[in-house]
Amino acid sequence: VQLQASGGGLVQAGGSLRLSCAASGRAFSDYDMGWFRQAPGKERAFVAALPRSGSSPYYADSLKGRFTISRDRAKNTVSLQMNSLKPEDTAVYYCAARPSAGSPWGYWGQGTQVTVSS
To answer: Among 88, 87, 96, which residue's Cα sits nearest to residue 19?
Structure first.
């Protein structure tokens, strides 16, 4: 599966952004879908994931309540709604896919930059 992330940009603290990840090659329903982010000088970190099974999404503890991951099966896209953004949310955001919960995140999009100004 090929992934293409979009929707990043510059936003003021307190604002919102919606990222989108489009898939081609295979349907999203065949994969767990996730979002990760990498801030300058830091390692890539988990943000949120949506199991292929249809189970509830799960989030990094620090992001619960502000970020929401969702899937549009008809459009074969996965979105990340980000609200109440903070400067520390500034990072390159990546969407990812894996065949199942026991597999590594083996498929990655190219990343989209999110910058939150104070």
So the answer is: 96
Residue 99 burial (C-beta neighbours within 10 Å; 0-12, 13-18, 19+) = middle
pLDDT at 53 exceeding the cut of 80: yes
Q: CA angle, corner 86, sides to 88 and 115, nearest 5?
A: 70
- How is the chain split among helix, strand and coil, in percent rounded to 5? 10, 50, 40
b/e code 69-95 from CB counts within 10 Å (16+ = b) = bebeeeebbbbbebeebeeebbbbbbb
Answer yes or no: is pLDDT of 27 > 90.
no
DSSP string, 63-81: GTTTEEEEEETTTTEEEEE
Which structure tokens are listed for 24? Answer: 């081609």
pLDDT digits (tens, 9 = 90+) for 59-85: 999 998 999 999 988 888 999 999 999
Phi, psi of 83 (to 5 degrees): -115, 165
State how far Cα 10 lies from the chain centre: 17
